[in-house]
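Before going further, learn to read the protein records used in this course. The integers have meaning only within a learned vocabulary of local backbone shapes. The record below shows the convention in full.
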Amino acid sequence: MPFDPNTTKPEIDFPGDTPPAELLIEDITEGEGRAAEAGDTVKAHYVGVAWSTGEEFDASWNRGAPLDFQVGVGQVIQGWDQGIVGMKPGGRRKLTIPPELGYGARGAGGAIGPNETLIFVVDLVSTAKPGAGSAFGLR
């Protein structure tokens, strides 16, 4: 099942207990087609929530456009680089990311505090192999 353009922004429930020490990957919907691999260029919609507050700090849905990035090359936090691998287009995945795979002790501006565990629900819109990026205007 490819990404459904009628898919709506997910809600994230506040966990309220002790955050995990490792990256947690939970498939909500599996998707279909070729799974994303390191080096692929992907488009993904997401919602991000801080574990400590349950407050949303960012969402591509609010901007009306998915995020484009290359997996595994450091364009996004490590938790995303690791957590997107294996996703298929049309899939929805929850990533619970410990601080060392997120923004660490520095945090990110006023939105994400130091040593914050992050929760993302990610919808994979599409994936393309390196060199096949012309669909995204990339080479």
Q: What stands out?
A: Residues 133-139 have pLDDT under 50 and may be disordered. The chain is about 5% helix and 30% strand.
